[in-house]
Amino acid sequence: MSSIRMRLLTVLVVLSGFLTVAGAPPATAATPAVPSGSLWFDGTPLTVRDGRFLDGQGREVVLRGYNVSGETKLEENGGLPFASVADARTSATALRALGGGDAVRLPLSWAHAEPVRGQVDTAYLAAVTEQMRAFLDAGIRVYPDFHQDLYSRYLFDTGSWYTGDGAPKWAVDAGNYPKESCGICLFWGQNITQNAAVRKAQYDFWHNAYGLQDAFLAMARTTMAHLRQHLSEEEFAGVVGFDPYNEPYAGSYDAGQTSRTWERDLLWPFYVKFRARMDAAGWQDKPAFVEPNLFWNANISTQKQEGGLLDAGTLGPDYVFNTHFYDQKAISGILMWGKAADGQYASDFAAVRDRASAAGTAAVVSEFGHPLSGTVSDKAPTVLKAMYQALDSRVPGASWWTNPAASGPVLSGSQWQWDLYSGRHHEPMNANPDKVVTSGDAWNGEDLSAVKLGDFGNVTLRQDARLLDRIYPSATAGTTLAFTYEDRSRDGSTTLTWNPVPSSLPNVARVVGSGQYGLLVWRSGGGTAPTELHLPASFPASATTVVSDLGTVYAPPAYTAATPVGVAPEPGGSGSRRLLLTDTDTDTGSSAPHYALVTNGATAPSADLLNAARSELAAWTAAHF
């Protein structure tokens, strides 16, 4: 997680609980080869080309979802994301239906994968595979992540204020590290730079002391080979790639070394070695989701370090530029007193887009979030809205309608986190039976889960459903030119509207009213598969209006190949739905741009109003594209 984080209060604050999903039944022995609800264009593997994720139909894919889950960092369930496959299936169904996700980052534990040096625990790998399969069966793409924070929990004493996760005990024993101490620390992340034991252990890993890195790479190859062998071809197609190492940091720099040269001389060679292990394990067609030095994009000047894999050259299809972003100023409670506002993170996320573009690859923000309890939790509704806004477009809402062509690509991202056990943990911190943690995430005082289990086993959102369950272009048949989504999420009783339809488009404004709306502009790629937008639960087909050059529709019908604007289930049988937009362009890239406004703000709009709104959008699109 982020390098600076408040020690959160233990009181659970439930921000919003608008929807629930009943617990799923236990897993059965048989698993479907293809997720239920799939159509002919679903289920193909993703590749990276021209700086984008592309599916087998050549469509531009956006991955949106959550980390599932921080439970991997705990011992209570043996380093697994879930206590059971049944819980994993419950989580996957709810994540689709309530959270609108189409992808998850799945943390794994080195400590549990290799508890004895040189001996990979196949029982742990088998359990990981089954829990991963629960998401693949729900039509949710997966990218695993070897997770670590503060290197390892085995660095910490039983009475410590803090703990870690990642490396196994034998790796810590090899180093004979000093007694851990963070000194005067208010944030767990200060251990990264202030705790001598953590710094030395990280330093040793990157310098391959005691053969630690070699052992990790061998374990990773075995893990990936096991997944490749035990997932079917259809299931493996849903695995997007692999995140080799969470939030890498040097520990300390050698004389004359800088953060940039450390990335060049130690971090990047590690990724090249990991890439070779992927190829050897049968993952040669999937990218490594490589993270730069975790401080490269810190938004506190004293924390920021030069980086971003600047000397790695063109990454190309074998790698994805993978980064995290937390508003450390907001989390500090000191450096940002107010709440986030329209466009707050536009420049931060623009830096991610620009760095990925320069590296010639796609980007993903694989962690972002904000505490949901404690002294800074009041900022969460605005901070998260601003982060999602910046994922959607690099242009603030106030200027989006006048400058949509500057939107840039829609970024993929995974919010931290989706933890069914939020507030219900039973974690003996650092194996101390007298220090059992139950509140929040049960890890270093954090409380970031967007979800929890209710008293009757129902999955309940802890954040505004309007914020989390969003319209986004999950697959664009061509190239996205601009996208925005006004979620109208709430900060307490205040509706946050940062991107109102301008008065220069009065008929569009009438159609939208006070409702939520999304607007996608794209240029066709000439294929036959449709463009897809995820439809939130707040957009039932009977109350959804689409104004597009492909047609104007109130209450769009079920999808057919002959229906330019239609609705269909998303794969997986969770009840979630998608809007499918089919164009008839055959000349790749040379056609006029397409546009589609999707809103739930209209009630039985007249044909005249829809046609007037269409005329306004057509003129607006022609003027800006």
Overview of this protein structure:
The protein has 2 domains: 54-469, Glycosidases (TIM Barrel); 478-624, no CATH class. 27% of the residues lie in helices and 17% in strands. It has 16 helices and 26 strands. Strand 2 and strand 3 (52-54) form a beta hairpin. Helix 11 (346-359) runs parallel beside helix 12 (380-392). It is globular. Mean pLDDT is 93; it is low at 1-32.
Protein topology:
Elements (H helix, E strand, L loop, with lengths): L19 E2 L25 E3 L2 E3 L5 E2 L2 E4 L17 H13 L5 E6 L1 H4 L8 H16 L3 E6 L22 H7 L15 H4 L1 H11 L5 H19 L2 H5 L21 H22 L7 E3 L28 E7 L2 H5 L13 H14 L3 E6 L11 H13 L4 H4 L11 E4 L11 E2 L7 E2 L13 E3 L5 E3 L3 H4 L6 E2 L1 E9 L3 E2 L2 E2 L10 H7 L4 E8 L6 E5 L9 E4 L2 E4 L10 E5 L7 E5 L12 E6 L7 H18 L1
Parallel strand pairs: 5-6, 5-11, 6-7, 8-9, 9-10, 10-11
Antiparallel strand pairs: 1-15, 2-3, 3-4, 4-16, 12-13, 14-15, 17-20, 18-19, 20-26, 21-25, 22-23, 22-26, 24-25
Short structural summary:
This protein is α+β, with helices and mostly antiparallel strands.
Structural class: alpha+beta
Name the CATH superfamily classification of the largest domain: Glycosidases
- Low-pLDDT residue intervals, each spanning 5 or more residues: 1-32
Which sequence of strands runs across the widest sheet? 7-6-5-11-10-9-8
What number of domains? 2
Tertiary shape: globular
Beta-strand residue fraction: 15-25%
Main sheet overview:
7 strands, parallel
